[in-house]
Design brief:
- The chain has about 400 residues and is of the alpha+beta class.
- Helices cover about 25% and strands about 35% of the residues.
- The strands form 4 sheets. A 6-stranded antiparallel β-barrel has the order 2-9-12-11-10-13. A 4-stranded antiparallel β-sheet has the order 6-5-3-8. Strands 19-1-20 form a 3-stranded mixed β-sheet, with no helix packed on it.
- Helix 2 (about 100-135) runs antiparallel to helix 3.
- The radius of gyration is 43 Å and the shape is elongated.
Length: about 400
Amino acid sequence: MPILDARLVRVAFLIASLASLAACGPKGPPGGAGGMPPALVAVKEVKPATVAVEFEYPAQTAGSREAEVRSRVGGILLKRNYEEGASVHAGQSLFTIDSAPYDAAAASAEADVAAAEARLSNATRTAKRLKPLYEAKAASQKDYDDAASAEEVANADLKAARGRLATARLNVSYTKVESPITGLTSRSLKSEGTLIAGPADLLTTVSQVDPIYVNFGLSESEQGGLKRESAAGKLVLPKDGRFEVALKFEDGRMYSRTGKLVFTDVRVNSQTGTADARAEVPNPAAELRPGQFVRVILRGAQRPNAIAVPQRAVMEGPQGKLVYVVGKDGKAEPRPVTLGEWSGTDWIVLSGLAAGDKVIVDGLVKVFPGAPVQVGDPNAPPPGLPGAAPGNAPEKKA
């Protein structure tokens, strides 16, 4: 046999073998495009209802009372009498200033008072002696007037000396620098041995943390939007704006106590475009510290006839937020939506959905525009595996 004919025979045999293997191979299951079965998805049929809404903003805590601790007198700082960061009560001594100069000044003032009292006693006796002599015409009017004036001057000198003594004693008491309020202390800004100039030197601060303030800002656009929606009946705000306030820590934990909104400024900051707002929250265990960053959640508002969908159903598309709905033909249909606030774990949908739409909430991994879908439990184990229920997967609606 010629060599060329042998090669042709081998090629023909190889082609026949491949065709036979292809014919015996597995066939894809009937279903969607490319032979793939419809994706199992869980859906939620949306229905308008009155839902509670929440407004969340970044915030920072602050003491409900912030006091600067300063010495009223100058001198050498001898001792710090508190533990930095500890709780102190009003009137508790925080620092001790060297009192020796003020003790000496007080002793000198006491001596001045004693001398003034002696001069007053002498002037009083002189005036008493001259009075009967003046009445008996045995002393001149001038002598009597001089004696009476001397008594008045001595009395005034005594009052001045007593005033200086009171000041000196106050200065002695001011060498014990006390806390003006009950609260948590900050670090000491001056150490022992430092020369304190007086009120100009800040020693530390004390913050009252129960209750504690939570400060945040409301943008001008947000405030305007809330007012317009409230006027249109699309949003019901709590009476007098008395929102309930909850706090969320940076790690996602919720603070165990709730407070109330106590102040909203009518002025708008020209630099930030926000109006200052303040909430008051109880803090008996001092779990919240001044200066802490938290998230403030305002509760108490409601949206009547609102449509809500789970947050996990909302996706980010090229044109913004969207959800997938099951169309009449059983295929996934992307639907752009406009979102409002949160309501628990749901998004409030302002536009894009209508009552009766079936929104896909689970099984979105295998969903794309126009993909055939089947309502069921996408988390159920495939048939034949342990835990799989016999028959078709049961229909699941969120």
